[in-house]
Amino acid sequence: MTAQVTVVIACHSAERPLDRAVRSVLEGNERHAHPLVVAHNIPLEELSLSIAEDLRPRVQILPHIDGISSPTGPFNAGLDAVDTPWCAVMGSDDWLEPGAVESWLRLAKRYKAEAVLTNLALGSPTRTVPTPPARVLHRGLRHERTDRLVYRSAPLGLLSTAMLERLGLRFIPGLSVGEDVAFATRLACEARVAVDRTGPAYVIGEDAGDRVTYVVRPIREQLAFVPPLIASPWFNRLAPSTRAAIIVKFIRIHVFGTVHYRPGVESWSGSDREDLASLCQRLLNASPSAVRSFSRAEASLLAACLDPTVDAASLAELSRKRRHHGTPATLVTSRVGDLFLPDAPPRFIAASAATKLTGTVAAALRSYKRPS
């Protein structure tokens, strides 16, 4: 059977567990997919040695030399080289469970989807990552707001090559962080998307020593992906409720996450506080109604982010209170009438818990049924 899916794997170091990623494509999903490894700023010969000898003849390796420490270049080069109807992207320290690609293709065919967001796990198939926290009982194509698709920040899963060309989707060059957010967000809003809630997982590896996701950078660099996204024509064509959902996610995940990883005064420098306040105001200007979905604890933290005179210790304390999940301040919105909006705390927390539970149970069942 000719492979329908090209899995693009970007790799910049022979120290990465590339063999595991390649093997997960060839041995667990070989009927439907083949790996395309992009050697990023590393000689092909050196990288090929990190792949088991018996697998090398079945792996296409594409060189990409740009001298830039970002996965954007190699991923885009790989996507440009795809000649199959479907594709996927994968980090070199990640892997697929057997049958993942087949599960994606089955859902795409059943629902005529242009993309299938994979079941996602961290470190082990049983540790489900509950994003997106989609509706549990719904089947078929998903809605960007009611199924909270925008909470998936990376385009992991099955992607129609034709859809990528139609929307012009690629990773954004020139960013240290968030090069995949615009890609994943527009995909959620403008493609026909299905969600594989319980299928074999895409597992994010935890054994890479050089991940940069949580490196503290200046605010202007850390959140540089936000201003061009909210100024883009496609974002401003979206329905007001969809724009609000995106802004809620950006503040809740990216802004509040940035604050969380800066617990001490030493984590803030230069114009960080002014830049944070300015960015938060730009986000609210893009969708003033977004504030309706925040819990009281989130609203308090947001108010502090908007005021550059609030000191770092106060920000850190408000951030800790926001993360005391289950307390009244983290559950209740400022207005009672907003309590059951799709991304207000009660429904969001319930959907996240349900997603984690169903993913964990499904992983346990797969493990039980798998031959020993």
Describe what is shown at a glance.
By secondary structure, this protein is an alpha/beta fold.
Q: Structurally, how many domains make up the residues?
A: 2
The H/E string reads EHEHEHEEHEEEHHEEHHHHHHHHH
Distance between the termini: 27 Å
Mean pLDDT: 95
Side by side, the strands of the main sheet go 3-2-1-4-8-6-9
Tell me what portion of residues adopts beta-strand conformation: 5-15%
Q: What oligomeric arrangement do these chains adopt? A: single chain
Q: Per CATH, what is the topology of the largest domain?
A: Spore Coat Polysaccharide Biosynthesis Protein SpsA, Chain A
Enumerate the spans where pLDDT stays under 50 for 5 or more consecutive residues: none
Structural class: alpha/beta
Give a count of the beta strands, DSSP E runs of length 2 or more. Answer: 10
Total count of helical runs of at least 4 residues: 15
Proportion of helical residues: 40-55%
Q: Any idea what the radius of gyration is?
A: 21 Å
CATH level-two architecture of the largest domain: Alpha-Beta Complex
- Name of the CATH superfamily of the largest domain: Spore Coat Polysaccharide Biosynthesis Protein SpsA, Chain A
What is the C-level CATH assignment of the largest domain?
Alpha Beta
Shape: globular
